[in-house]
Structure formats: C-alpha cells, structure tokens
Amino acid sequence: MPVLCSSCSHKRAVLKRPKTAHSLCKECFFWAFEEEVHQTIVAAKLFKQGERVGIAASGGKDSTVLAHVMKLLNERYNYGLELMLLSVDEGITGYRDDSLETVKRNQEQYELPLKIVSYEELYGWTMDAIVKQVGLKNNCTFCGVFRRQALDRGAIMLKVDKICTGHNADDVAETVFMNILRGDIARLRRCTDISTTSEGEGVVPRCKPLKYAYEKEIVLYAYFKKLDYFSTECIYSPNAYRGHARTFLKDLESVRPSSIMDVIHSGENLSVREGVKMPVQGTCDRCGYISSQALCKSCVLLEGLNRGLPRLGIGKHHRLHNKILSQQPLTEKEEKKLKSVDF
Ligand code: SF4
Ligand code: ZN
C-alpha cells in the first residue's frame, strides 16, 4: 500500500525527510524546506528591507538552491531585497570554467545580475599556476584565503550591503569538529555564527541562510525541483583534513540523523573562558584588509608566490616573514625551507 504524506495526508509520499524522518509528498517537502529557511532568516533578522544582497554563487548544489530559495522567499514574503549573483573564478581549468557556465545559465533562469571576479585579475595568479608552484598539498590554503578576500572585493564592486553564502548544516558541523581538532579557539567561537558583522574596512557582512539545512535535503530539493547545478568535485581537492571530519560526521548521521544539529547546537553554546588569548584584529599594512598580523595572510601568500618561496605563508614562519618583508637576506637554509614543496 502506498505511504501517504504525513503532512497533507492525501498525496503519496515520495521521500523520507533526512532531518525529521517524516514521509512527505514533493509539494509538502518543498514547503517545509522553504519555510525552515524563511524561519531561519526571520529569527536571525538576516536582512533589512531595501538591502542589496550578493549571493555567492559557485554553480554547485548549495549555492544554486540558495539562489533559487532566496529569490522565491524574497517574492513570497516581500523581503524587499535587491538580489545579485557573485562568483569567484579561481582559474581551475576543467572545473571552475565549467561550473561558471552553470552560474551563467542560473543568471538567466533567475533573472539576476551576475558579477564574476577572478584570481587572475585580482592577484595575477590562477589556481592552475599556483598548483604548478606549490603542489597539491597546500593549494586549498591559497584558494581559501584568496576566495575570502575576492568575495569581499567583488561585493564592494557590486556595492552590496551583505553577502549570503550556501554553507549548510553539515558544513557548519564539520567546521566545529575541525576547529576543535585543531584547537583553533578563535574560529571555534565564531564558526557557528549565522552572520558576521562588518569586521572593518573592506569586509562585507556575510550570512548563511542555509545554516540549518541538511546537505541531504539540499540535494533532494535540487533534484525534485530539477535545478540546474554542477556536481563535479574540484580537480585539486585533496583537503584530507576536512575529508576526515566529513566522513566522521556522515558516520554519526547514519546512526543518528540529529547528530548534525546537535553538533551545531553544542558549538553555538560553547563559551571561551576568560583569559584565553585571542588574536587582535587590525589591518594589513600593505592592502588594508583585516589582519591580526602586520601583513594579511593573502599578502604573505602572494609575496611567497611572487618570490618563488611558496612555503612563506604556510605554517608558522613569522620571523621569516618579517625578515623578508624588511628586505633582509635569508640564509641558504631558510631559503631552502621556504622553497620546498610537497607534491
Ligand atoms: Fe580551491 Fe581547494 Fe576548493 Fe579546489 S578544493 S576550489 S583548490 S579550495
Ligand atoms: Zn594584505
């Protein structure tokens, strides 16, 4: 006998919600998913009427669902937002060039303006060229640091008040684990925040409307809505550390689906005891971007690339940073250390 939808009780259920285990028909699932995102937005007061909001769009499932749902809720509930898509082209042949084609189609499908900023134009380096120099072990460090700044620069060009990103509940829970495993207390404290306030000049506030949406539900939503998204993994994606955190979380989820929400909840309620040393936020002497050191991570990484010393920004080399930046010569041993690359 067909199972009936536990919400409307008259249509046939086509799926079991990963988050609640309710059997639902397609329409009731769409409604439940969209309403939860709406509740998240309202409860956290993520937007104000009249704001210009940039949606960070990669062409992947999360950001495609985010763009679709943001447009829909903006119309359904009269948020009064001016939405636009913002993409970063990291310069990864065979991956980002293809996914950007998806974003360009999304731009037409959703009738939203699109701005693409590229690493090549901002930094003079594509990820393809960076990987040639730094190898496949630390490439995601370069990419992550550059992306954060690239999104801010793009947001400033678009004159948006806020950026929203497609981070989902699984991403947030994974990040909680990673920060615990690394002992990164400063990041642990802020990684469950649903939005950031402007941390300074050149930094645009960000928010995560899908913070409580399970990845499995995002996939189901995109699938049943037949959304046009790109699902290939980055060709330079080793990121083994996050991979372990992800596998661990997926194992926990298969035993107890609420694990994802429970980890987020734990992260949200942690507090840091008084007296724990935290980095002091200042600005980069070179580019003016926020930084807890004299130079921001992006400028250090770039300096390393331009000098053929790729390890300069990897690990703790603050003494050597200062030496290089004040134009003091390096010893042969120091030079060798900063040149070595793990492929
Ligand atoms: Fe960049 Fe690494 Fe992500 Fe690829 S996997 S897009 S290199 S951060
Ligand atoms: Zn800088």
TrEMBL record:
The UniProt record lists the EC number as: 2.7.7.-
Q: Which UniProt keywords apply?
A: ATP-binding, Cytoplasm, Nucleotide-binding, RNA-binding, Transferase, tRNA processing, tRNA-binding
The residues that the entry says bind ATP are 56-58, 62, 88, 166, 171
PROSITE patterns per the record?
Answer: UPF0021
Q: Which Gene3D superfamilies match?
A: HUPs (3.40.50.620)
Residue span(s) of domain Cytoplasmic tRNA 2-thiolation protein 1 C-terminal: 282-312
Which intervals hold domain tRNA(Ile)-lysidine/2-thiocytidine synthase N-terminal? Answer: 53-233
Annotated pathway: tRNA modification; 5-methoxycarbonylmethyl-2-thiouridine-tRNA biosynthesis
SUPFAM superfamilies xrefs: Adenine nucleotide alpha hydrolases-like (SSF52402)
Biological process GO terms, please? protein urmylation; tRNA wobble position uridine thiolation
* Keyword Metal-binding among UniProt keywords: no
GO cellular component entries:
cytosolic tRNA wobble base thiouridylase complex; mitochondrion
Enzyme class comes to: transferase
What InterPro entries does its record include?
A: CTU1-like_ATP-bd (IPR056369), CTU1_C (IPR032442), Ncs6/Tuc1/Ctu1 (IPR000541), Rossmann-like_a/b/a_fold (IPR014729), TilS/TtcA_N (IPR011063), tRNA_thiolation_TtcA_Ctu1 (IPR035107), UPF0021_CS (IPR020554)
Question: Which Pfam families does this entry report, sorted A to Z?
Answer: ATP_bind_3 (PF01171), zn-ribbon_14 (PF16503)
Report the subcellular localization: Cytoplasm
GO MF, any single term: ATP binding
Chief subcellular site? Answer: cytoplasm
Family, per the entry?
Belongs to the TtcA family. CTU1/NCS6/ATPBD3 subfamily.
Q: What HAMAP family does its record include?
A: CTU1
Q: What does this protein do, in the record's words? A: Plays a central role in 2-thiolation of mcm(5)S(2)U at tRNA wobble positions of tRNA(Lys), tRNA(Glu) and tRNA(Gln). Directly binds tRNAs and probably acts by catalyzing adenylation of tRNAs, an intermediate required for 2-thiolation. It is unclear whether it acts as a sulfurtransferase that transfers sulfur from thiocarboxylated URM1 onto the uridine of tRNAs at wobble position.
Its recorded name reads Cytoplasmic tRNA 2-thiolation protein 1
Q: Which organism is it from?
A: Xyrichtys novacula (Pearly razorfish)
What does the organism's lineage look like at the top? Eukaryota, Metazoa, Chordata, Craniata, Vertebrata
Gene name of the encoded protein? CTU1
